[in-house]
Amino acid sequence: MTACPAPALSVLGTCDDVPAIQCCLPDAVSCSVDAAPGLCLPEAECPADLVRTPGLCPGDADVQCCTDPALACDPDAAPTPNDGLVEAPWDPACPDGMIAIQDLAIGDFCIDRHEASLVVLDADGAVIGSHSPYVHPTGDVRAVSIDGAVPQGYIDGDTAAAACATAGKRLCDDDEWLRACRGAAGHVYPYGDRLEPGTCNDARVQHPAVEYFGTADPSIWSQLGNPCILQVPDGVQTTGAHVGCVSDDGAFDMMGNLHEWTADPAGTFRGGFFVDTALNGPGCTYATTAHDRSHWDYSTGFRCCATPL
Q1: Residue 176 and residue 62 in one domain
Q2: Strand order of the sheet with strand 51-53?
Q3: Residue 59's domain spans which residues?
Q4: Per-residue pLDDT tens over the stretch 250-293
Q5: pTM of the complete model beyond 0.85
Q6: pLDDT digits (tens, 9 = 90+) for 184-231
Q7: Residue 272 domain-assigned (yes or no)
Q8: What is the CATH number of the domain that holds 126?
Q9: Are 122 and 198 part of one and the same domain?
Q10: In the chain, N or C terminus with fewer CB closer than 10 Å?
């Protein structure tokens, strides 16, 4: 399969797609309509079988967002991109998917190497498939920590705690979460003390809800449970994709990507998400306390901790 050069590759697929011109469009600013990825192009350069949407691109009015409507997000589809991925053992001192952290002050503990995703269980507790990371979980689910997975968004704190418990784990205490992110040296960011934008998934400029709905009207803020918000291009990334976003102990994505619930019974999620890792404190110190544990939206994720084996 022949691939187009970036950014066309990341925006419109590969050259074997039909029609191939969807892939091999010129280098341009990316955009999206209904979560369908596109490019900002002059009207004359957008292929006739694609759709042009005005008002979404910088420059002249003639430059419009060129998209394939077949790629638009269906809010009822519930895709399961993690099918076939499995949780692997990592540290013999910990359950699968976890790393061990030694600390004299708070005691030794294990923490998920990656932000958690979910598997669906049948009535006997057997795994019957992966859960859609774009849908609020309501059935029997178990937390897993898998490399290369889309982490679970749309989860409330109580469901996150239950999913960890079903896996023989638990939500992390705040001091455990902070220790895992900051390392023994107490870094501000997982990778050190100086901000490096883009090292973690923390540099998206436009809010995904504004991009998806095509407006900043206040009405969109009551619709943050829409499954398509997290499917907007260049939003959430698969676990471990930002290879430099790793703590001294080996935990990935503790800054950016998705917020992460902790065990605070009053409701706290930490680390920021792919648009904001500074508003409520820089890097590892970021903490949102404005919601109780029943809250969920596209940006809320989690990871688990456990006692060493």
Answers
A1: no
A2: 30-33, 36-42, 63-67, 51-53
A3: 8-71
A4: 999 999 999 999 999 999 999 999 999 999 999 999 999 999 99
A5: yes
A6: 999 999 999 999 999 999 989 889 999 899 888 999 999 999 999 999
A7: yes
A8: 3.90.1580
A9: yes
A10: N
